[in-house]
Amino acid sequence: MSEQNKDNTTHFGFKSVPLEEKTRHVADVFHSVAAKYDVMNDLMSGGIHRLWKRITIERSGARRGHKVLDIAGGTGDLTKKFSRIVGPEGKVILADINESMLNVGRDKLINSGVAGNVEYVQANAEALPFEDNSFDIITIAFGLRNVTDKDKAIRSMLRCLKPGGKLMILEFSKTENPALTKLYDFYSFNILPQMGQLIAKDSESYRYLAESIRMHPDQETLKEMMVDAGFVNCRYENMTGGIVALHTGIKP
Ligand code: SAM
């Protein structure tokens, strides 16, 4: 599924922007929210993002000695958990395109005493600067919807995984229950931007958050994109009524 329109534009939330401008708009959003990202995450989700991330770790099958890439890792919640599991024989790379998010993540992890098995790399998910067949697990949590060329990113992740390695995409998705959808829409488009304004002094970035979620491929479409890229055993698990879905696929 290409996100590119015939006139070389793509979506940035509900707006249509020239393809080459989306990355810059996304960068502006994350430079703006970086300092308040963690506190907003807890407030907006009522802390439930911690549960979604815990389930992701449980399903990862990560073990001591594993090499894990947490791309679009931002402030490093998953990296922190993986670092403890893989131990000194393993390695976790926290990678993100955005310097501000990566800096907040690095400071947070160092302050919380995360071991020396974490490396920090500024990288675009569409063109990962890592060797072929080098990771046991790659995670991208709440990151893929911000990527301009999602197919390219999924292929880049496939290239970097070892044969048998697992890709895990944790992302907002489509709710199944009409009553929940109505409530969720009201919350996203009315309350969320106001919370953004009040706490982070930035309603626009939080409006983008709500819009980008609505523009993201639904569960089945994303699964097909993984199959088309060459992943096998592709499946997904809905969480919180489909507000979030965890897609997994294996590199053959
Ligand atoms: N994974 C973290 C989490 O779950 O809390 C952070 C998620 S945050 C909503 C999205 C992150 O994706 C931001 O840090 C942003 O900079 C990053 N991002 C956006 N586009 C990217 C790209 N093309 N390549 C890598 N990271 C990207």
Overall structural class, as computed from helix and strand content, comes to: alpha/beta
User: Which sheet architecture does the biggest sheet show?
Assistant: 7 strands, mixed
SSE order, one letter for each helix or strand: EEHHHEHEHEEHEHHHEE
Report the CATH architecture.
3-Layer(aba) Sandwich
**How many distinct helices?**
9
Q: Portion of residues in helices?
A: 40-55%
Number of strands: 9
Can you describe what's shown?
The chain has about 250 residues and is of the alpha/beta class. The protein has a single domain (about 10-175, about 205-250), classed as 3-Layer(aba) Sandwich (Rossmann fold). It is built from nine helices and nine strands. A seven-stranded mixed beta sheet has the order 5-4-3-6-7-9-8, with helices on both faces. Strands 1-2 form a two-stranded antiparallel ribbon. The longest helix is centred in the C-terminal third of the chain and has 23 residues, at about 180-200. It is globular and about 45 Å long. The protein starts with 8 loop residues before the first strand and ends with a strand. S-adenosylmethionine binds next to helix 1.
List keywords for this structure.
alpha/beta, Rossmann fold, 252 residues, two-stranded antiparallel ribbon, binds S-adenosylmethionine, 9 helices, 9 strands
